[in-house]
Amino acid sequence: MLKSLLRWHSSRHLAGSRSIFLAAQIYRDGYVSANNYESASDGEYALIRRLSNEKVTTIFDVGANDGSYSKMISKILGEAKIFAFELSPITFSRLQDNVRHDTKIILVDAGLSNTEAEVAFHHVDENPSLSGLGSRPYSVESRVLKSRVIRGDVYAKHAGIESIDFVKIDVEGFEIEVIEGLSGILDSVQIVQFEYNEMSWMRGNFLDKFREVLPGFQIGRLTQGGVIWDLSLLSNAHLCAGNMIALNSRYGVLKALLSRF
C-alpha cells in the first residue's frame, strides 16, 4: 500500500517525489529483509531468478545443509552445475537423500576453509542450521563430531574448475575463512553471497574485514527488491544483519541487473 501510494506520488512529478519514493523503497526493502533468512522473502529466490537469463554454469553452495537451496538453484538455473559442500556428517546424509535424483548437484562431504584439516564440529540436533565450527552461543545443546575442511581453490583446481559464477556461503560465522580459502580462484568468481550477522561480529568480522578479503569486489545488501549497493543509505550498515552480495568489478555489467528485482 505504502509503495503504491508513493509510486503514484512520484508519477505526478510532485516536488521531491522521486527522492521520497526511493527512500521509502529502501526503508521497506531493508525492513522486510532485516534478520530474514527465508529464501522466498529475503531476496535469495529473486536473485537467482534474475540470473536465469545469464550464463551461470558453476556454483558453489557452501554450507548446503539439507540441499533446499541447491535444489532451488538447480530448478531455476537448469544448466548450472552445483557443488554442494556440507561439513556435518549427519546433515550430509540428509543432503544425500534429498538430492539423490539430481545429477547436476555434486556433493562434497567437507566444509570449506582457509586450510585443510580435521576439525571438531558442533552439531545441534534440535536445529541443524545452527550447527557449525566453534561452540554454539545459543541456549541449545550440541554434540561434537569430527569432520574435515578443505580449501575451495584447491578443490577447484583438482576438479578442473577454472571459474565460478556464484558462491553462496552460510557457515555460521566462518565466512571469512571460506573466502580466504578461495583466494587462488577469487579473480574468476563473479558473485559471492554471504550471511552477515552476530556470528561474524562475535569473531570480530565486520564489513571492513570482508572488504579486505574481497579486493576488487563491491559489497551490497540483498533485499527482496534488489541489492542496495550504497550502504550509506542504511543506518548502522556494519551491524545490518542479513545476506550480503559481493560483485566482482570485472563483471560490473551485472550491477544494474541486480539492483532491482
Automatic annotation (TrEMBL):
Pfam (any one): Methyltransf_21
Domain of life from the UniProt record: Bacteria
Residue intervals passing through the bilayer: none
Start and end residues of each Methyltransferase FkbM domain: 61-201
NCBIfam families assigned to the protein according to its UniProt record, in alphabetical order: fkbM_fam
Record protein name field: Methyltransferase FkbM domain-containing protein
Species annotation: Candidatus Thiodictyon syntrophicum
